[in-house]
Design a protein that fits this description.
Structural class: alpha/beta
Helix content: 40-55%
Strand content: 15-25%
Distance between the termini: 44 Å
Largest sheet: 7 strands, mixed
Number of helices: 10
Strand order of the largest sheet: 3-2-1-4-5-7-6
Radius of gyration: 18 Å
Length: 250
């Protein structure tokens, strides 16, 4: 099972595929100036829960983009059963390839999607590249994990190559300024948000392995999730944060 399939399994019981609550998201969007009829692009949309929330509660149209056909299949199935599903369109593509041909949008969302800009030297470069997909006066909503304290080599390795650009909460706000954006709001996930995310992640993998004992990957999945659970309790819960960052494009 590759990491995209594992992610689909692990996030089966989440609302959003990141440690973000509905209340946290709405608190940020309340300061965005979002208007009914806006056109949004959601990069790394996953199962499209956030895209559907935007469409349903704010009346925007959303272009939901993901490189994973597995995630897009889940997203389209969810959209078909949702009253706001008709406001979404789905696109299988790399994020920057999609932005290169799309018209600038009113709201660009990139929450928990990892490093989206190949070759970006730092977060300022990454945010500047993403902002190219936003119209002047539009908004960029970015969500990413950050280090609360310097990580051990074990935690850094366990979280993968995407951590190369992880920095601090304050560093991310400064990166937006360096990219020529205006910081409008920044907030971080609570310990409860993290526990909700981490334990649902672990429980979903355990449930899948128990329900699919003939899957050749089941044993390895259980070993992997047990190791992550121990690391989360020992270091991840206190050392890893997640923030939402709302920027305006002048």
């Amino acid at each position: 099972m590759d990491h995209l399939q594992l992610s689909a399994v692990a996030h089966a019981n989440h609302h959003f595929s990141s440690p973000v609550s509905v209340e946290m998201l709405d608190r940020v969007l309340a300061l965005s100036g979002i208007e009914r009829g806006w056109r949004a692009i959601d990069l790394g949309c996953g199962p499209a829960a956030m895209a559907l929330h935007l469409a349903d509660h704010y009346g925007v149209t959303v272009e939901a983009v993901d490189r994973s056909s597995v995630m897009l299949d889940l997203a389209q199935a969810r959209a078909k059963a949702h009253r706001a599903g008709e406001r979404l369109s789905f696109h299988e593509a790399e994020s920057m390839d999609y932005l290169a041909t799309a018209a600038p949008c009113d709201l660009l969302v990139a929450v928990g999607a990892g490093a989206l800009v190949p070759g970006a030297a730092d977060n300022a470069a990454q945010l500047a590249a993403l902002a190219e997909g936003v119209r002047p006066g539009g908004r960029l909503l970015w969500g990413e994990s950050f280090w609360k304290r310097p990580p051990s080599d074990i935690l850094r390795a366990a979280t993968g190559p995407v951590t190369a650009l992880y920095a601090s909460h304050a560093d991310y706000v400064l990166a937006g300024e360096a990219a020529g954006l205006t910081p409008l709001y920044a907030t971080v996930s609570s310990d409860q948000d993290w526990d909700e995310y981490a334990w649902r992640y672990c429980s979903a993998v355990e449930a899948y392995a128990a329900d699919h004992p003939d899957d050749p990957a089941a044993g390895a999945m259980r070993q992997r999730i047990a190791a992550w659970r121990r690391l989360y309790l020992a270091e991840g819960r206190d050392g890893l944060g997640f923030g939402l960052y709302l920027f305006g494009k002048p």
